[in-house]
Amino acid sequence: MTKQDIDYILRRGVAEIIVKEELEAGLRAGKKLRLKEGFDPSFPDIHLGHMVTLRKLRQFQELGHQIVLIVADWTAQIGDPSGVSVTRPMLTMAQVQANAHTYMEQFFKVVDRERTEVRWQSEWFGKFDLGDIIRLTARFTVAQLLAREDFSKRYNAGQSISLTELLYPLLQAYDSVAVQSDVEFGGTDQKFNLLMGRELQSMVGQRPQQCFMVSLLVGTDGVKKMSKSLGNYIGVAEPPEQIYGKIMSVPDSLLLNYFELLTDVPDAELAGFREALKGQSVNPMELKKRLARELITQLYSEKEAAAADEHFTKVFQKREMPSDMVPVPTHSSHIDLRHELVSSGLVGSTSEAVRLIRQGAVKVSGKPVTTFYADVEDGTPIQVGKLRWGRVQFIPPVIPGT
Predict the structure, then answer these.
(1) What share of the chain is helix, strand, coil (3-state, %, to 5)?
(2) If you placed Cys at 211, which of 18, 105, 254, 378 could pair as Cys (CB 3.0 to 4.6 Å)?
(3) 133 with 55, same domain?
(4) Other CB atoms closer than 10 Å to residue 203's CB: what's the count?
(5) Domain count of the fold of the chain
(6) How far apart are CA 243 and CA 240, in angstroms?
(7) φ, ψ for residue 221 (rounded to 5)?
(8) Does residue 94 belong to any structural domain of this protein?
(9) What is the pTM of this model?
């Protein structure tokens, strides 16, 4: 690696590295590093916020370093507040495995599957007994754990903190020992846990890992970090047209940040974007289109990116209806929209359908509906929000004996 290569990989999209000088020395020496990335399979989906870290892992991977993906199947049954002051529910092993499968399918849209070592926590924690747990807890103090920001806030506010939650940072730290991690990756909100791993490795005689923290991606609301629970996210497995449409709703103020964290557009070109936006010599929508194409090309292909671009131009700029609408099969010309929207997959639940209808976000034949029922014909278009379209498809009723 050249000095320029090292500078780029340790700078772009990076919030903090502990210790940067040590990591840089390791890269210059040509050492093959073990890069630890763990994930909590409490939820199955990945959004663009996760992609910031995954892209950085891929950059290291392409330079010959080894990614070690840890499936936190054991700690998923404990619950980690992760800065949100809400304990996550315990999951069954079947739920963990289902979520992990979906997560990894999305993970490998960015990272090379063939060059990734996948490890399950249960490989080592499944063998732990009470004595192992006590010996692990003896290495740290309660005061150290309460130094974690979210624990500290909850403790000072008189909110409950379970002993199992306090165990989580210790267990994540032990993961680093188990896989002999050289570098652990995470967002800035994981700094405490990453440092715990570094400290535990030193205690047991291993070389302490470097802590590589990427910047947190602000969600489409322009206020809080991207989160599925907040609804301000863009999923990496969403259809290309939906990703494209959501990028159009990203605040103009976040454009350069998204380009820097999520694309390989050169720094010099980004500087040009910055000047153009400042001088109002470019329409932000044109940059959003470029950003959408860059992302969809990474996650799907150039062909899919071009198709999504064409779809957006046709549907939203020329106000035409898309040709590939979701079929909404029905036997009747008088339909219950709540049922039909869910059964066709246009919405995920009846409660979501109710909410969108009440908000006036559902249109039948181009007109917002105000009730849960609508009269339709074969081919009637149904629009949900700005991005989802369906077309009524009459199915003849089944007559017994025919």
Answers:
(1) 45, 15, 35
(2) 18
(3) yes
(4) 12
(5) 3
(6) 5
(7) -80, -15
(8) yes
(9) 0.75
